[in-house]
Design goal:
By secondary structure, the chain is mainly beta. It contains 3 helices and 21 strands. The longest helix is centred in the last third of the chain and has 20 residues, at about 245-260.
Length: about 325
């Protein structure tokens, strides 16, 4: 009898901790300067992330996760150093930060987060565990670092730097902008990139265990096959800076100038606002891709040459297609 009563009480306690079916948390923020493209930085654990560009100046996130809850008070004489866990969103100097429960790690329950952002925004997504990522209708630059999961990009118009360790990549671009490099890398998964038939680009395509495919004609895409050495494998990625990187560099330069006027250097090691760039914004590193020898490597000139496009996978096919 006592054992049965204990079991019932335990189940009742677990039920009180479970999320209410259908419950949603909605958080929003607006950019400080609507006349300047902002940056949206998303940190996620085990979540499916869906980002869509819309008109307006508001960043709005809807999730089944609960809003951030502070941990229980510490024992007398101790203070809590760990941050709250949950679902938080805030804005500072045209950088919106969304933290979707990364502190819970592998024990975190999976969820879905739908985010709408101004179309001109640059989007940076860091997914530490498993979860698919989709981004659509964005004119700014996008960067994705995904541990496990598929990455889907649709109707983009800016630069891109995409990496996933385990999962395929499918990307389509309404236009390929000048001086906006596109880089895609997967350790395990096929990569398919669709661009307008009239796009001008310099392309680098490589796969260790898979085919390299295209529907561009020989007249449109003039190619040559390369012998993959370690030096070539490391050095074929585009070098032009993305917009988010330029914005962060401008912020750092302005903050350094202010620091000189005030007679002191702001931040750590000359980097105002803490690690990662001005006011917490992240300087986007360009994708170096996995380093390997062997396999297949093809470089080419598309419609006379232009924007750098690099597509790499260790295991899977690489496909460059007309939109």
């Amino acid at each position: 009898m006592k054992a049965e009563l204990f079991l019932k009480l335990a189940l009742l306690g677990l039920a009180s901790l479970a999320p209410v079916s259908g419950a949603e948390t909605v958080l929003s923020a607006t950019f400080t300067n609507p006349n300047r493209p902002g940056i949206v930085r998303i940190k996620a654990g085990r979540n499916q992330i869906n980002v869509r560009g819309v008109d307006g100046n508001e960043v709005r996130a809807t999730s089944t996760k609960t809003a951030s809850v502070s941990p229980a008070p510490a024992q007398e004489g101790l203070r809590v150093l760990t941050p709250p866990i949950g679902f938080t969103l805030y804005e500072n100097n045209n950088v919106v930060q969304l933290d979707a429960g990364t502190k819970r790690g592998v024990n975190e329950s999976a969820g879905s987060i739908d985010i709408t952002v101004p179309r001109a925004s640059s989007v940076v997504i860091m997914s530490d565990f498993d979860g698919d990522v989709s981004i659509s209708d964005i004119a700014g630059d996008v960067e994705v670092r995904a541990a496990m999961g598929k990455v889907q990009l649709e109707r983009l118009r800016g630069g891109a730097d995409i990496q996933t360790n385990r999962g395929g990549i499918e990307a389509s671009f309404s236009e390929v902008a000048s001086r906006k490099p596109l880089a895609f890398s997967s350790m395990m998964g096929a990569v398919v990139v669709r661009i307008p038939a009239t796009a001008k680009a310099l392309v680098k395509l490589r796969s260790q265990n898979g085919q390299i495919l295209t529907d561009f004609s020989e007249a449109e895409l003039a190619i040559r096959t390369e012998t993959m050495t370690e030096r070539q494998a490391v050095g074929i990625q585009p070098k032009a800076p993305l917009a988010a990187e330029r914005l962060a560099a401008q912020d750092r330069a302005a903050a350094d100038q202010r620091a000189k006027v005030n007679g002191k250097l702001a931040g750590r090691n000359g980097d105002p606002g803490g690690p990662g760039g001005a006011n917490g914004s992240r300087v986007i590193p360009l994708n170096t891709g996995p380093s390997f020898t062997g396999g297949h490597a093809i470089s080419g000139t598309l419609n006379g040459g232009g924007t750098d496009i690099a597509i790499t996978t260790l295991s899977g096919d690489v496909t460059l297609r007309k939109l």
